[in-house]
Design brief:
alpha/beta; Rossmann fold; 3 domains; 5-stranded parallel beta sheet
């Protein structure tokens, strides 16, 4: 390949690389205004695929530039020579960090604890700052054009500004303003507990049924981890509540939380809310602990006189999360029709079974929350049965 072409393509790859890195910050920085439009689950998926493109550009940039400048010296010798300067070395260190995190995380994703995954991601902030120094010192087009310099500074300030505001400043501000602390921990079933959180002026901490937040409990054994949970209560001025099922090491010890423990809350997040309802006839489908956001959504809808049918699917009887509360809600409100579905007896829930249970389901906006395989199966089946995608509301509840 002609050296001039390699040089031009290498520089272009470098520019695209930096765009992609800054976009990564905005996509996964819990950017409030963006999350309200798309929802965090869609932003997380875009973050994943943009990360793949970032890795491609990250490999292309140094390879093409080294090829362009190698001449008769050979690729390896030229690469070593180019890394003799601190600024090129900073770029190489940034690349190594990004590649290591970008490759290790997908390979080890299922085995990594959430907190390890989280702290690995924090290394990427260091890498991006190293890349900026590399770009500032060695990017000829960057250095020699004043407008270009201003443009890039604005992009970096915008990306890091949003990150600092929403990822760090917002939860700290809410903690200072509301002084969140645990009011009580209540046993729901043998396998689930509800945590009630009190604070100052809770009326002004606004969230909608169906939303979630990331909770950090400032107690020994808990403070170094933060985990996402849906609000299982509707907004009120007395308490916030989350309901946690024992599904892992962290959730298994949630019962050990003490009254008075301070709580940092990062949120609210999510668009699994009544605002997305296409009409006033609703079908809610909850699988297992997916009832926590669904119960809150249902309560808001029925109090707004919507016509709501709720299919609550569990594997078998016993240890059903929030069962008593859902029963009481159905008994109190005639516009809520509760249908309990037990997959061990009735088989996997699918569009045919949904039709038998709720005959007019195609006339309703359908909300689905539960395990990701259940969501994917039902969404695919309902679309095949003729429902429009815009009438199927769901969020794949994961930050990874």
């Amino acid at each position: 390949m002609d050296s001039n072409i390699s040089l031009a393509m290498g520089r272009l790859a470098g520019l695209v690389l930096v765009y992609s890195l800054l976009l990564q910050l905005v996509l996964i920085g819990r950017t409030g205004w963006l999350e309200k439009i798309f929802g965090m689950d869609k932003l997380a998926r875009f973050h994943h695929w943009n990360g793949v493109g970032t890795l491609v550009m990250l490999l292309a940039h140094p390879i093409l530039l080294t090829v362009a400048k190698s001449g008769d010296s050979g690729f390896v010798a030229t690469f070593i020579r180019l890394n003799g300067g601190d600024d090129v070395l900073n770029g190489t260190i940034a690349a190594i960090i990004i590649i290591a995190v970008g490759i290790l995380i997908p390979i080890l994703l299922e085995k990594l604890k959430y907190e390890i995954w989280y702290y690995l991601h924090l290394l990427l902030y260091v890498a991006i700052l190293l890349a900026f120094g590399h770009q500032l010192e060695l990017g000829g087009d960057f250095r020699d054009n004043g407008l270009f310099v201003v443009f890039w500074w604005v992009l970096y300030v915008f990306a890091f500004g949003n990150l600092i505001l929403y990822r760090f400043a917002r939860p700290i501000y809410y903690f200072w303003r509301h002084s969140f602390e645990i009011q009580k921990v209540e046993k729901d079933t043998e396998e689930s507990h509800s945590i009630y959180i009190q604070g100052k002026d809770l009326k002004r901490f606004e969230f909608k049924g169906g939303q979630f937040a990331i909770f950090r409990f400032l107690q020994e054994g808990f403070w170094y981890e933060a985990h996402p949970y849906s609000f299982s209560s509707i907004h009120n001025d007395k308490f916030l509540r989350i309901t946690v099922k024992n599904l892992g090491d962290y959730s298994n010890k949630i019962r050990e939380l003490k009254v008075g423990t301070k709580v940092i809350i990062d949120g609210p997040n999510g668009v699994f809310t009544t605002a997305r309802a296409g009409n006033r006839k609703i079908l809610l489908i909850a699988g297992g602990v997916g009832i926590t956001p669904v119960k809150a959504v249902a309560e808001e809808m029925i109090k707004d006189n919507m016509d709501v049918a709720l299919i609550y699917s569990n594997r078998q009887e016993g240890n059903i999360v929030l069962e008593k509360e859902v029963d009481l809600l159905a008994a109190e409100y005639k516009n809520l029709r509760l249908i309990k579905f037990l997959s061990q007896k009735m088989g996997q829930l699918d569009p045919e079974k949904i039709k038998a249970l709720v005959q007019d389901y195609k006339e309703r906006t359908v909300y689905i929350c539960g395990p990701i395989p259940m969501i994917e199966s039902l969404v695919s089946g309902l679309k095949a049965a003729g429902l429009r995608g815009s009438n199927i509301i769901f969020e794949k509840f994961s930050l990874r």
